[in-house]
Design a protein that fits this description.
104 residues, 3-stranded antiparallel sheet
C-alpha cells in the first residue's frame, strides 16, 4: 500500500472586490512512500479558481485539508500516479540484472 502525503507550503493571496485575502496560488508538495523504504515526491504551484462569494471561507479559517481539496480529485490522482510510477522505477532499479562496475 502506498501512502501519499500532501502538504501546502504557502498560499499567495490578494483582495478581490470586497473579499480580503483571496487565495489565488497554492504551493504544494506530495510525498509518496511504499512502506519499504522507497520514497518519492513532487512539488508544484497551482493557480486557485476564482472565489465563490456565496461560500467564501475567510483566510484565517482555511484548513490544509480544504486547500488540498481545491486542487481537484483528477489533479491529485494524476500526481499520485506519477509518484507511484517513480516508486516502481526505484523498485525495478533494485532488482535489475544489468549494471556497470567491477567485482572487486
Amino acid at each position: 500500500m502506498i501512502n501519499h502525503v500532501w502538504t501546502i507550503n504557502s498560499l499567495k493571496y490578494s483582495g478581490v472586490g470586497n473579499l480580503a485575502k483571496v487565495v489565488n496560488q497554492i504551493s504544494w508538495d506530495c510525498y509518496s512512500d511504499d512502506g519499504a523504504g522507497h520514497v518519492t515526491g513532487r512539488s508544484g504551484i497551482t493557480q486557485a479558481d476564482p472565489p465563490n462569494p456565496v461560500d467564501f471561507t475567510t483566510y484565517n479559517l482555511l484548513t490544509e485539508h480544504a486547500v488540498v481539496s481545491w486542487l481537484g480529485d483528477e489533479f491529485i490522482a494524476e500526481i499520485e500516479a506519477m509518484n507511484e510510477k517513480a516508486l516502481q522505477a526505484l523498485i525495478d532499479a533494485e532488482v535489475t540484472n544489468t549494471g556497470t562496475g567491477v567485482p572487486w
